[in-house]
Amino acid sequence: MMTRREAAKLIGGTTAGLLLPADAAHAQAKRESSMIARAIPSSGEKLPVIGLGTWQVFDVNLTPENEKQLGEVLSLFVKLGGRVIDSSPMYGRSEEVIGALATKLGIREKLFLATKVWTRGKQAGIESMELSLTRMQTKRIDLMQVHNLVDVETHLATMRDWKAQGRFRYIGVTHYNESAFSDVEKILRKEKLDFLQMNYSIMEREAEERILPLAQDRQVAVIVNRPFGGGDLFSRVRSKALPEWTAEFDSRSWAQFFLKWITAYSGVTCAIPATNKPDHLADNLHAATGQLPDAKMRQRMVEFVAAL
Predict the structure, then answer these.
(1) Per DSSP, what are the bridge partners of residue 196?
(2) What contacts 221, CB < 8 A, 6 or more positions away?
């Protein structure tokens, strides 16, 4: 089994690959054009099926050392064709760090910025969303989401107004726990949304029962959080060899195995694994290239992981 670092090198994912000669740059451009993308149902705009989460890993003070590392992560993310980067006021300094680095690197227009409102009351929500725009150093956020359905109807009303004004391009809601799926279902049926963000992984499959099919029926794009089960999946497969048959769907690491299983579901628009390591980022993004497992293979993957 390849390590994540070895797999990353296969797609030019080391930090040394940030400055590329002409031949390597051409190969990289070819990779980018082949990244699997899915359309947002409400607009038809396509997004790569792998994005970048920022919970914990971007909640830092920007020292010279971690500014360099996170700058390499964002630069590489864009170079390899990534677009969706997701944050929240709940994630501490994450929005501020994204805004500062995106501005310094000159990559704002290449990113699909998603963040959230996480408070109660109309005025508090307005102040929170204004602050997100300021922290992210932008006049327009691509996707604003109601974090964990907190005061959801109040905030959706404001968000619709701001979308009409062009301050948001898309609006949606989020949750991270299956215990909230009944509430998520009610909102999906009642409200007109562009996006739903929710937890879904090879060992957290409850969303397949009602939520994912409903999102497809309602023409709502789906962003998947907790794609690695909060890291629990890596604990499960630690020291385990990757099966040889994973080569049938171009998987070279456990991270790609888990991400390809998710993105093979046609109703998933994008999965957002979080990382602050350039080699892990490249490894993750490789899951957006090559073949995806079919339904039969996805079931085989479930059974294999369940038996470990």
Answers:
(1) 173, 222
(2) 38, 40, 41, 42, 47, 170, 172, 194, 195, 196, 215, 269, 270
Q: Alpha carbon 40 to chain centroid distance?
A: 14
Task: Find tokens 């963000």 and name the residue.
Answer: 197
Three-state SS for 60? coil
Let me know the angle formed at the C-alpha of 258 by 113 and 174, rounded to the nearest 5 degrees. Answer: 40
Rounded to two decimals, the pTM is 0.89
User: Residue type for 102, please?
Assistant: A
For residue 32, name the pLDDT band (cuts at 50, 70, 90): very low
Structure confidence by residue, pLDDT tens digits, 6-20: 544 444 444 444 444
Q: How far apart are CA 232 and CA 54, in angstroms?
A: 18
Q: How many whole angstroms separate alpha carbon 43 and alpha carbon 175?
A: 23
Per-residue pLDDT at 3: 52
Please state the φ and ψ torsions of residue 52, each to the nearest 5 degrees: -140, 120
Looking at the DSSP bridge assignments, the partners of residue 222 are 196
Residue 106 near residue 134 (C-beta atoms within 8 A):
no
Q: How many residues belong to the chain?
A: 308
d(CA 75, CA 150): 33
User: Which element (helix H / strand E) includes 101?
Assistant: helix 94-105
Per the structure block, which two tokens stand in for 12? 């030019």
* Residue-wise pLDDT tens digits, 68-100: 999 999 999 999 999 999 999 999 999 999 999
